[in-house]
Design a protein that fits this description.
Number of strands: 46
Helix content: under 10%
Structural class: mainly beta
Largest sheet: 13 strands, mixed
CATH architecture of one domain: Sandwich
CATH class of one domain: Mainly Beta
Number of helices: 7
Length: 749
């Protein structure tokens, strides 16, 4: 169909067309503290978390047959004994106090009969001094099965706690954590020269003289959904006020399995028992409640905030082993807003696993009401002389300008208000065809200072002039005036819940918030200590800062108006091209005779400032031995292209299986695949060539384009010009090549 002339209109409503906040929402983080009121729980200072207290008493430890441990290969000088204590139970004694020169001959080994030992145990010891002239290392070692991250993958290994006695030379005088890969040894290994020492503790236990009792509590905290590796928690009970020795290992996972105890160099009585949790009522409550804020001099008092107990949702971040549950509820009766955490244990088998509560959260939504849906339009009484709007691939920063000239005798635009909601319509007159006719292209808001009004002094009877009404999407018009207050941290929330929360707190009703199913269930990451702030905005931060941080953490896209509706949305970003399923929105054809398909100007550019051809990926950069991977463009390709090396380095804090795919695809998208660009200007297309749309190259000679290549729209600006916009309508687009991707580390080739 023939293009006639552009047409458009503005439909202007009240700022509260979709409602406004009538009662403020409130979000708070309650971080566990040592002064919380606890019953059957304890505060774990290095984790900043709370957890059920463990039962740290010796239990029966017997030898097979019928017992829990068997004597391993080597020195078999073990026997069962009774040791005084509370309670009196059976221990095992290594009774060989002989002077040795051969470490293998000196060492006694115990192996658990069952392979179901969880890495949470308490070790009780009575150690005698080594005999005079002892020539071997005196120590006790508890060894557990483990996985070790090495050379890009998790491999079998062992993790051990080694408790030495100081020798005459003063060496080996501190307890230490040790790991080793199974591939590093055949039958045995020396912890001092093989494997890796992770961390060292206090030397006090190693320098005791004469028979002395010690008790060590060992606990392992992991959460594969939230952090890599895990946390070692070790205490020498009765020493150092029972303070924790804490070490976080990114590249180690201690496993449930067989446990082994090695003893060497001196007579030692020992008892290794699992720690049991949940033997009593387990609750923890904040020391003091926090009331609802009061707005003074507003006439609202406490009614400014939502204060219905049913409207507040209590939640938190918890690591929950199987059969454990955690409940967070408001303890307050006369004083509401007082969180209490209750732990509940299921089957007895879960008694040897420890749950952790890292953070408690409190959240209520704002109430959005009082929508004023009255509108007025520029049709009829106003002449829309010109109108423009632009989009980019982020769907951020969309804005436009309208030239409005009220007709003589018409009500001027003086009734329009800053922040007013505006429906923007633009396109060709009826009959132009699908994707071309005038339609709603955006919902925006009149920007502060965006309604200049004036009179022409040369014509006293002229209608008021409005040289340019500036309209912006929500992020352009409203974000700069908004700041974040009273918002809970985003860590551990799903994208869907988070988007609903921030949209509500920005004043958007639920009907204006869209979360794509592809990202809805993604969980916003926390730190390696989930009790520490994770995506927790500071009071007064801008929304853009907070949203950008979450976007980067999950590689998602958050913007406004992807469907021309002004809605806040989250998705996975621009879709990848699939030759079998993707829709082609337009075909570039130099020889077309169809007026609306002719391009007035087209420019092909085969490079860009973001192009890179050498990639370095660092997996877990803070690990002791981070894994390093490289990709480089082939030398012949580089010589035929930019003739240079442009580098890019990326650190990735995730396991290898996730890292290479994610980093590679993002590198292709941002730095390698999209260096080939198109820009064109042609007839106004308001609808089907928005960012993300795919365009195919047909016949287009002379400028280096290849028939069949696919480009994706990244930017699009539309404009109607002239009196009543009858002088023309233009679309200006920028595109990037996305197919074929015949080169690069994650190409389709």
């Amino acid at each position: 169909m023939a293009l006639l002339k552009p047409t458009g209109k503005l439909i202007v409503g009240a700022p509260n067309h979709d409602g406004h906040i009538t009662r403020y929402g409130l979000g708070r983080d309650w971080r566990p503290r040592p002064d919380w009121i606890m019953r059957g729980c304890e505060y774990i200072e290095p984790l900043g978390a709370i957890a059920p207290s463990g039962l740290l008493v010796p239990q029966e430890m017997t030898l097979t047959p019928g017992g829990l441990f068997e004597i391993g290969v080597g020195n078999d000088a073990f026997r069962e004994i009774k040791v005084s204590g509370n309670p009196v139970v059976t221990w095992l004694e290594f009774w060989d106090g002989t002077v040795y020169s051969d470490p293998d001959a000196a060492k006694g080994l115990l192996t658990s009969y069952y392979d179901t030992w969880t890495p949470n145990w308490v070790l009780s010891l009575v150690r005698w001094c080594p005999p005079i002239g002892q020539g071997v290392y005196s120590f006790v070692m508890v060894e557990m099965e483990a996985s070790v991250f090495y050379a890009g993958s998790w491999v079998d290994g062992f993790a051990s706690l080694v408790l030495p006695l100081q020798d005459a030379a003063g060496e080996h005088d501190s307890p230490f954590l040790h790991t080793i890969r199974t591939a590093e040894f055949s039958t045995s290994y020396n912890v001092l020269t093989e494997g890796r020492i992770l961390a060292q503790g206090s030397r006090s236990s190693s320098s005791r003289q004469g028979p002395a009792r010690e008790q060590w509590a060992f606990e392992w905290i992991e959460d594969t959904n939230r952090f890599t590796g895990g946390h070692f928690l070790i205490r020498q009970l009765g020493e150092h006020d029972g303070k924790f020795w804490h070490y976080y290992a990114r590249d180690v996972r201690v496993l449930t399995g067989t446990i082994r105890i090695a003893v060497s160099g001196n007579v030692t009585a020992l008892n290794l028992s699992p720690i049991r949790y949940g033997e009593s009522t387990m609750t923890a409550r904040a020391r003091y409640p926090k009331g609802i804020p009061i707005v003074y001099d507003s006439g609202l008092g406490e009614n400014a905030w939502v204060d219905d107990p049913e409207a507040f949702a209590w939640d938190g971040i918890a690591t929950l082993p199987a059969d454990w549950t955690v409940t967070v509820e408001d303890y307050g009766i006369s004083h509401p807003h007082w969180p209490q955490v209750t732990f509940d244990r299921g089957a007895y088998g879960s008694a040897f696993l420890r749950p952790i509560v890292w953070l408690v959260t409190e959240q209520s939504d704002s109430i959005i009401a009082n929508a004023d849906t009255d509108t007025e339009t520029t049709e009829g009484e106003h002449v829309l002389d010109a109108l423009s709007w632009s989009w980019n691939r982020r769907y951020r920063g969309s804005e436009g300008v309208a030239e409005v000239h009220p007709t003589p005798g018409a009500t001027p635009v003086e009734t329009w208000r800053t922040n007013a909601r505006v429906e923007v319509h633009l396109g060709w007159q009826a009959g132009a065809g699908a994707g071309l006719e005038s339609t709603q292209i955006a919902i925006g808001y009149i920007m502060p200072g965006g309604i200049p009004r004036g009179l022409d002094g040369a014509n006293e009877n002229a209608a008021p002039l409005t040289p340019g009404v500036r309209i912006g999407a929500f992020d352009v018009a409203r974000w700069p005036q908004k700041a974040i207050i009273d918002l809970r941290s985003a860590g551990a929330m799903t994208v869907s819940d988070w988007l609903s929360m921030i949209g509500n707190r920005m004043g958007l009703p639920a009907s204006m918030i869209d979360c794509d199913v592809a990202v809805a269930d993604l969980v916003i990451p926390v730190t390696e200590l989930p009790s520490h702030p994770a995506h927790a905005p500071q009071e007064g931060d801008k929304w853009e800062q907070h949203i950008d941080a979450v976007e980067a953490a999950l590689n998602i896209r958050v913007g406004f108006g992807k469907n021309n509706d002004g809605h806040l949305f989250a998705d996975a970003g621009p879709p990848a091209y699939d030759p079998y399923t993707s829709t082609i929105a337009f075909t570039v054809d130099y020889n077309t005779t169809t007026a609306e398909d002719k391009l007035w100007r087209i420019v092909h550019n085969d490079s860009g400032p973001e192009f890179r051809n050498l990639l370095k990926i660092i997996i877990d950069p803070d690990a002791a031995e981070p894994s390093i991977f490289y990709w480089a463009e082939q030398e012949a390709t580089r010589r035929a292209g930019i003739g240079d090396t442009w580098e890019c380095a990326v650190g990735v804090d995730i396991a290898l299986g996730d890292a290479l795919g994610d980093v590679g695809r993002k590198f292709d998208q941002d730095h390698y695949q999209w260096q080939d660009t198109l820009e064109w200007e042609g007839p106004l297309r308001p609808e089907n060539l928005l960012p993300d749309a795919f365009v195919e190259i047909g016949e287009c000679p002379y400028i280096g384009l290849t028939v069949g290549d696919i480009y994706q729209v990244t930017d699009h600006a539309v404009a109607g010009q002239g009196e009543g916009m009858g002088l023309g309508g233009t679309s200006t687009l920028r595109l990037v090549r996305v197919y074929p991707t015949d080169e690069g580390p994650y190409s389709d080739a």
